[in-house]
Amino acid sequence: MTNAIEIDSVTRHFGRVHALDNVSFTVPEHSIVGLLGRNGAGKTTVMSIMAGQDRPTSGRVQVAGHDPFEHAPTLAQISYVRDNQRYPDDYRLHHVLRIAPDFAPNWSEELAAELVDGFRIPAKTPIKKLSRGQLSSVAIVLGLAARAPVTLLDEPYLGLDVTARAFFHRVLLRDSGEHPRTVVFSTHLIDESASLFDRVVIMDAGRLVLNADSDEASESAWVMSGTTDAVRQLTTAANVLSTNVVGGLMSATGSGVIDSGTLDLAEDLRVQISRASLQQLVAAYGADDAESDTISEVRRA
Ligand SMILES: Nc1ncnc2c1ncn2[C@@H]1O[C@H](COP(=O)(O)OP(=O)(O)OP(=O)(O)O)[C@@H](O)[C@H]1O
């Protein structure tokens, strides 16, 4: 399978802040990838490097086979939606829609019109007076109607209501099915977006902690809960990412296959084992447990 994006040993320092620390992963062409992790994990930093708007301190980035930085033919293949998009003060929706095709060779007026209608974006209100959710809608119109081979959506949801988010999901899935493209999508609304993702990339404190097929990541994630002694006994050999102890009870979130011996022991010890959601998995990777640092190495890609 061809990779649309290759991030190879990328580091980005801002003074003493290590926003990215030796990050490597690839994004297969025509996949939808969820870029997940806590605040400050490095998602926006890596996305702006993919978008050619920033350069790594060291390492290599390739988008559609080329370093995107100041490379016009590659930049023409990228649509980048971020939450702090700025527009000239006097701009209204029609101004934005009129210039958008100049930057997007595959621009679809039909799709733009469908999105404007579905999001109910007011045509006459100056862009700077739009609500937070309406501003997000404008950015999504630009991002999706561009039909760019590489579409980067950094927190596209801010302020979007639940109906608008569902509409956005439907159009994203339908249109990227009809017009295949590679999508990298960062969000904190993880469970709501999980069904969109073919793959997930989880970052924490500037490092990559998981790069996996999304179904495999969800299927291998679990939560064990029971008395603290029993859960500790069961998790000695397991890939525990985070634990939570309340009174004499403990829950442990982890990842990896649970063998039949452990399942039998869980029954004897009355420990409940359930599947963890993607959101629980991301929270566990970001937890400040001593255990998470050591054991999650197993899952690092
Ligand atoms: N221009 C900059 N100067 C200094 N530090 C920066 C700069 N840009 C980012 N950082 C720092 O780099 C780290 C990663 O930031 P980044 O915006 O990539 O995180 P994020 O995962 O997108 O977070 P969030 O989910 O909160 O949007 C943070 O500690 C941030 O403060």
UniProtKB/TrEMBL annotation:
Keyword annotations of the record: ATP-binding, Nucleotide-binding
The protein's name: ABC transporter ATP-binding protein
SMART domains hit by this protein: AAA (SM00382)
Domain of life: Bacteria
GO molecular function annotation: ATP binding; ATP hydrolysis activity
Residues in ABC transporter domain copies: 5-230
